[in-house]
Amino acid sequence: MVRKDDDKIIKQLKEILTTGVKEYTEKAKVQTEWREPLIAIASAQDELFYQLKSVISPEHNLPKDLVPEAKSVICYFLPFAAPIPTSNAVDTMKPAMINIEEQNFTAEKKRKLDNNKSANIPENLRPTTSWAKAYKETNDLIGILNKKLKSTLQDLGGRANYAAATGNFSPAELISYWSHKHAAYIAGLGTFGLHQMLITRAGSAGRIGSLVTDLKLPVTERPEQEYCLAKAGKDCQQCIDSCHFKALTADNRLNKEKCYEILQANARYFADDSLEICGKCVSGVPCSI
Ligand code: SF4
Ligand code: SF4
Fold first, then answer.
1. Structural domain of 192
2. Which helix (H) or strand (E) holds 210?
3. In terms of CB atoms within 10 Å, which end of the chain has fewer, N or C?
4. Residue 239 covered by a domain
5. What would the mean pLDDT of 89-117 be, rounded to a whole number?
């Protein structure tokens, strides 16, 4: 289905994101603040979606697996307000190791920490409370925004579907069935950094949402330049230095097992399975915001 009023639709979708963020901030008791959302559109037939079957996994979904006769993939980025990644940057002035006996934890949390071999992550390498809240609240916000976007696309005569903001992957194989960040790359929302995260015009500290629709929408151009300083030939490897867990290497590799171990240790620390977080490699670095 080709629509004549494509630009109007894009503006409408962007407006839903902007007002949705504003309403969520005002109505819900949230602590997180966000900067202006970014939006980009990919063709569901883009060859790069097919390449994800070899880049990520043969199990990775194609857009048509989410919506039959898919035409477009809408991707958006909700950038955190600057103080959030600043708060989560590695603080070399903080004490070295946490002592779980001295913390005022609940018995349940202590039990989880005691069971956690990785509990002795230095305190300055733990995600901050503000980072944890931003992660959780943004996932909730993405759920709300996706429903609003889907409803609007349906009102326009299309079908739409989306994968959850997080958790749609195999913990055993550490592969994603629908990678929001790869969809966002294909849509032109940004480029990948040495930290393997997407860097957008608004940085890399934030969360990505994506929806598939059978409405044909105008496709966004992918950026010509690399947003990662190192990939653009400049001298930077701050993300690698910020990953004290040695999950990132200068030859542009991510040790997924090591990274996931840290994410899980932090989830146990926060006593919340949904908080598989870290984010040190995107905090306090040149591409954070
Ligand atoms: S910190 Fe530097 S090297 Fe790492 S992704 Fe950002 S710009 Fe690239
Ligand atoms: S999320 Fe944490 S463990 Fe994973 S690569 Fe980034 S800094 Fe390293």
1. 6-282
2. strand 206-213
3. N
4. yes
5. 53
As separate numbers, helices (DSSP H) first and strands (DSSP E) second, the chain gives: 9, 10
What does each C-alpha distance from 142 to 96, 118, 149, 247, 256 come to in angstroms? 35, 30, 10, 28, 25
Q: Which amino acids bring their CB within 6 angstroms of ligand 1? A: 193-195, 228-230, 236-239, 285-287
Single-letter code of the amino acid located at 146: N
For the chain, how long is the longest CA-to-CA vector? Answer: 65
Region 102-119: mean pLDDT is: 51
Q: Is residue 1 part of a domain?
A: no
**Can you say how many angstroms the Cα of residue 133 is from the centroid of all Cα atoms in its chain?**
14
Ligand sitting nearest the alpha carbon of 88: 2
Least distant ligand from the CA of 289: 1
* Cα–ligand 2 centroid distance for 178 (angstroms): 20
The pLDDT score that the predictor gives to residue 22 is: 95
Please report where in the chains the tokens 């032109």 appear, as a residue: 188
Tally of domains within the chain: 1
- The owner of tokens 């002592």 is 99
> Taking each helix axis from N to C terminus, what angle separates 180-187 and 47-55, rounded to the nearest 10 degrees?
150
- C-alpha closest to that of 180 among 147, 154, 212, 151: 212
Task: Please determine, for residue 206, whether its predicted confidence score (pLDDT) is greater than 90.
Answer: yes
pLDDT tens by residue, 113-126: 554 544 578 888 99
Pocket test residue of 243, 260, 263, 283 for ligand 2, highest count of atoms within 8 A of CB:
243
Residue at 287 is within a domain: no
Instruction: Answer for the pair 25, 140: CB distance below 8 angstroms, yes or no.
Output: no
- How does DSSP assign 106-135, residue by residue? -HHHHHHHHT-GGGG--GGGSPPHHHHHHH
